[in-house]
């Protein structure tokens, strides 16, 4: 790998936003309303894929996905999402108010019951995890998860709208962590993200080319722990694709729920390339909307993953030893954004200068 290519990672564009988690509220607003408005405005409305291009605002990606603006058929833009009003709890259907989904009028609606404003970002349901007394101190990871997914899918929207989807088969998207959204984000995962991936899979089959090369790399959790206990039993150069029965028997426990039914838009597999390289890999779901997740997971098939050979070849070439079982993009990004790498260094420098003066 060319060192100059690695050097480019030092110039990563960082996205910044500030959101209140406790003791701060807007004038004449309660804390939950302050949180909702800030999530809408500061996190998704004012962050852009391309600086200065208002059409690239992340709020538009949320609408593009929810309304299904990516469809080729007459159903394009006619989809919607239903969730409870944050004020009166009455279920509301959020759909387009104007023909052009980019219009600001499509960012919010008025509740049919209480007539309060509902932002499209309320579909994440994150406001239900906070209260006026304790605030939102435990919500940061969920905000980051939602932001990461919207950021990544904004690239898909950009290529679709620029009529440049021919680039998608040439790009591998690597997510740090599983292909899933947890807790209150699960509705968005299986109602919005999963249908988009299923659409891309169907398009890939029809056109005999893979438009969805998306993987997640697990660093911790019960699947990683299970791999540690069985990796010596997996032959070198092999993949273990666990079905639902296997997961219930050896990993998740024999519970009534189906693993990942409402949270995952990927399928887990164990990969063992060589003695020192084995890892848990999530690959985007390999089936269209005619198939239900809970049915497919009962007996997944390795041949359904259209570009798995190419994905693995890329990952093997990106293996590095900076961290245990790490890959260059993930390891470099984690190093660059690590708190210990930037703020702590500055704090130590200031402290040292004060003591030396």
Helix content: 25-40%
Name the beta content range: 5-15%
Shape descriptor reads globular
Count of alpha and pi helical runs? 11
Distance between the termini: 44 Å
Largest β-sheet summary: 5 strands, mixed
Blueprint (SSEs and pairs):
Layout (H helix, E strand, L loop, with lengths): L2 H6 L22 H15 L12 H9 L14 E4 L6 E4 L13 E3 L6 E3 L20 H22 L11 E4 L9 H22 L6 E4 L4 H9 L7 E3 L3 H7 L15 E9 L2 E8 L8 H4 L11 H10 L1 E2 L5 E2 H10 L5 H14 L1
Parallel strand pairs: 5-6
Antiparallel strand pairs: 1-2, 3-4, 6-9, 7-8, 8-9, 10-11
Helix pairs in contact: 3-4
Explained architecture:
The structure is a single chain. With 357 residues, the protein is of the alpha+beta class. Helix content is 36%, strand content 13%. It has helices spanning 3-8, 31-45, 58-66, 140-161, 186-207, 222-230, 244-250, 293-296, 308-317, 328-337, 343-356, and strands at residues 81-84, 91-94, 108-110, 117-119, 173-176, 214-217, 238-240, 266-274, 277-284, 319-320, 326-327. The strands form four sheets. A five-stranded mixed β-sheet has the order 5-6-9-8-7, sandwiched between helices. It has a two-stranded antiparallel ribbon with strand order 1-2. A hairpin with a 2-residue loop joins strand 8 (266-274) and strand 9. Helix 3 packs across helix 4. The longest helix has 22 residues, at 140-161. The model has no long low-confidence stretch (mean pLDDT 90).
């Amino acid at each position: 790998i060319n060192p100059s290519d690695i050097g480019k990672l030092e110039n990563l564009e960082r996205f910044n936003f500030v959101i209140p988690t406790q003791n701060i509220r807007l004038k004449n607003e309660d804390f939950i309303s302050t949180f909702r408005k800030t999530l809408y405005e500061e996190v998704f409305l004012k962050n852009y894929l391309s600086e200065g291009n208002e059409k690239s605002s992340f709020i538009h990606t949320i609408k593009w996905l929810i309304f299904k603006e990516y469809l080729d058929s007459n159903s394009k833009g006619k989809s919607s999402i239903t969730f409870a009003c944050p004020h009166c709890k009455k279920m509301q259907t959020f759909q387009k108010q104007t023909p052009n989904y980019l219009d600001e009028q499509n960012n919010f609606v008025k509740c049919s019951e209480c007539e309060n404003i509902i932002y499209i970002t309320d579909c994440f349901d994150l406001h239900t995890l906070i209260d006026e007394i304790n605030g939102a101190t435990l919500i940061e990871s969920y905000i980051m998860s939602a932001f990461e997914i919207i950021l990544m899918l904004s690239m898909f929207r950009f290529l679709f709208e620029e009529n440049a989807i021919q680039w998608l088969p040439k790009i591998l998207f690597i997510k740090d962590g599983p292909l899933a959204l947890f807790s209150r984000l699960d509705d968005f995962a299986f109602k919005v993200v999963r249908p988009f991936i299923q659409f891309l899979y169907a398009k890939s089959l029809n056109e005999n080319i893979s438009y969805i090369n998306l993987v997640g790399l697990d660093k911790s959790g019960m699947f990683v722990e299970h791999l540690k206990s069985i990796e010596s039993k997996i032959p070198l150069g092999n993949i273990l694709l666990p079905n639902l029965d296997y997961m219930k028997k050896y990993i998740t426990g024999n519970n009534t729920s189906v693993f990942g039914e409402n949270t995952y838009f990927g399928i887990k597999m164990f990969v063992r390339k060589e003695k020192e390289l084995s890892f848990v890999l999530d690959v985007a779901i390999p089936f269209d909307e005619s198939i239900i997740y809970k049915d497919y997971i009962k007996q997944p098939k390795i041949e359904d993953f259209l570009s798995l050979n190419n994905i693995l070849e890329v990952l093997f070439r990106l293996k590095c030893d900076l961290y245990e079982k790490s890959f260059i993009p993930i390891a470099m990004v984690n190093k660059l954004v690590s708190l210990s790498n930037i703020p702590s260094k500055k704090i130590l420098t200031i402290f040292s200068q004060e003591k030396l003066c």
